[in-house]
Write a structure and sequence with these properties.
Blueprint (H helix, E strand, L loop, with lengths): L2 H20 L8 H4 L8 H6 L3 H6 L5 H12 L29 H23 L2 H11 L6 H16 L3 H14 L4 H16 L3 H14 L6 H21 L19 H15 L6 H14 L3 H14 L6 H15 L8 H17 L6 H29 L3 H14 L4 H13 L11 H7 L5 E2 L5 E2 L12
Antiparallel strand pairs: 1-2
Helix pairs in contact: 1-7, 8-9, 8-10, 9-10, 10-11, 11-12, 12-13, 13-14, 14-15, 15-16, 16-17, 17-18, 18-19, 18-20, 19-20
């Protein structure tokens, strides 16, 4: 029988044992056990015989439990003896006056609730699929084994040095699986990812690096791992720029790319770099790459958000000035006109002021560009005021129109809208604040008692004045 066939036979045997253990029936207790003076019907049966295979599969049988069971069968600890009709209960001194005597019944009552909770938790843990899988692997001969893991790691290292990366990856995966939660597993996981990377299986390599950094957050390989993730993200982004595809277009033949959405997975790589090593040398680079990727795709809101994040979280980054300039441009592109929300315009004005204050002469020729943008923002703000004034002006609400025209004259006097507002104010200065009520006669018929506004601005009633309602 070949080695592979033997392995499958052991796996199937382990699974069958796990299934049988669930409902296995144990033969009756032998007579010599029942005749033992320490035998307790029901209790002893359950502790020593019932479900032994199931407890072993689920990891419930431990050395501590075996020792406790042996101590129970041997009786009480040394220094105390059972009481009899002719002998005292113990040779040791009794309790001091006033000392509380903890009897077995009292101790059992005090710990019963806690024991029940621990037992329930132990049962739930033992029923978890991951624990059952580990136990089945152990029974099948694939449990933790340091010697096997080290041999696999050495074999993988030899294959890696020979540039046989596909074969090396399998050996490193075996080494990590056979000796978990150890420095050897950390080394094996990293070399497994490296083998996938150098065999151009970038999607699997990125997952392997992420698995390593999730389990070993402070791994000594974090610098190399995030550098690989950043390189994979750059390759995927550039590939999509050269050969764009729909996100739902499947990839079956190119092992260097993920199955779907190459561009989206590139951004995911950048995010992993920043989250796995937020203070590392590539954290600001990944954030800048993410923002620029959104900017090139025309998603200016996402781009502005990430540029802002870079400016605030990494103010000393080499990308800080370019991020400010691109953030200013992105926020301007978000703004849709005077009849829409003006928040992006206000944000752009704030970014322009911060850029001029912070970088100053370092902007060089770009300083003039920022000043021109600042002037353009002022014009756009004035345009918003002009649009409001025109709305009221066209509907003959000259009082409100004069308010906005005057605001333009006061706040934006050097803009073209400020001069136009000054001229229009002179034209409508004598016009009534509101248009005439052409349906006033109808209101009087429908509701003759409704109060109306007098020409002087005071409120008058259509009927006689009520005594005491006027001013003194």
């Amino acid at each position: 029988m070949s080695r592979m066939s033997a392995q499958w036979v052991r796996i199937v045997a382990g699974v069958c044992l796990a299934g049988l253990a669930w409902g296995c029936k144990v033969p009756p207790v032998p007579d010599h056990v029942r005749n033992n003076p320490d035998y307790r019907p029901g209790v002893s049966d359950k502790d020593e015989y019932d479900g032994w295979l199931w407890r072993r599969l689920t990891g419930q049988t431990t050395d501590t439990q075996a020792a406790e069971s042996a101590a129970t069968r041997m009786g009480t600890s040394s220094g105390a003896r059972q009481a009899s009709a002719t002998e005292p209960a113990s040779a040791t001194p009794g309790p001091a006056p006033g000392e509380t005597v903890v009897t077995p019944a009292l101790a059992a009552a005090a710990t019963s609730s806690k024991s029940d909770e621990d037992e329930e938790k132990t049962i739930l843990d033992s029923l978890s699929p991951s624990n059952l899988y580990k136990q089945v692997k152990t029974l099948a001969g694939y449990g933790p084994n340091e010697q096997v893991a080290r041999q696999a790691y050495q074999q993988g290292q030899r294959l890696f040095d020979e540039k046989r990366y596909d074969e090396a990856a399998k050996q490193f995966a075996t080494a990590a699986d056979r000796w978990p939660d150890s420095p050897l597993e950390e080394d094996a996981l990293f070399m497994y990812a490296e083998s996938l990377f150098f065999s151009d299986q970038y999607a699997k390599a990125e997952d392997a690096y992420e698995k390593l950094l999730k389990k070993y957050q402070y791994s000594r390989y974090v610098d190399k791992a995030v550098a690989r993730q950043f390189a994979i993200g750059r390759y995927w982004e550039q590939f999509h720029a050269a050969e764009p595809h729909w996100p739902i277009t499947p990839n079956f033949g190119d092992k260097t790319r993920p199955m779907f959405d190459t561009w989206g997975y590139a951004l995911k790589c950048y995010e992993h770099v920043r989250l796995n090593d937020p203070t590392g040398p590539l954290a600001d680079d990944s954030l800048m790459a993410t923002a620029t990727a959104y900017y090139n795709r025309g998603r200016f809101e996402d781009a502005a958000f990430h540029y802002d994040l870079l400016r605030k979280e990494y103010p000393k980054s080499e990308h800080a000035m370019n991020a400010s300039l691109l953030c200013l441009d992105a926020k301007q592109r978000i703004y849709q006109g005077p009849l829409y929300d003006g928040t992006p315009l206000r944000d752009a004005d704030e970014v322009a002021d911060q850029t001029l204050t912070r970088f100053g002469p370092a902007l060089g020729e770009k300083r003039g560009l920022v000043l021109d943008t600042k002037n353009q923002i002022v014009e756009q703000k004035a345009e918003r005021e002009w649009a409001m004034a025109q709305y009221y002006d066209k509907n003959h609400y000259y009082g409100a129109a004069r308010f906005y025209y005057q605001s333009l004259v006061d706040e934006y006097p050097n803009t073209r809208y400020g001069e136009a507002a000054r001229q229009r104010l002179a034209q409508i200065k004598d016009l009534p604040a509101e248009p005439p009520d052409r349906f006033g006669w109808l209101n009087k018929i429908v509701n003759p008692k409704k109060r109306r506004t007098s020409p002087g601005g005071a409120s008058a009633a259509s009927g006689p004045t009520v005594a005491g309602s006027g001013g003194g």
